[in-house]
Amino acid sequence: ETDTAPRPAAVYRLYSADETLLYVGSSFDPDRRLGDHQRKAWGHLIARRTVEWHPDRDVADATEGRAIETERPQYNNVGTPEYAARRRAEAAATPGKWRVAYDANELRHRVAHQLQRFGYSWDRASAEGMILERAYKEQSGAFPNGVTYPSIEQITEKLSRL
Question: In sequence order, which residues have a C-beta less than 8 Å from that of residue 85 and are 6 or more positions away?
Answer without folding.
Answer: none
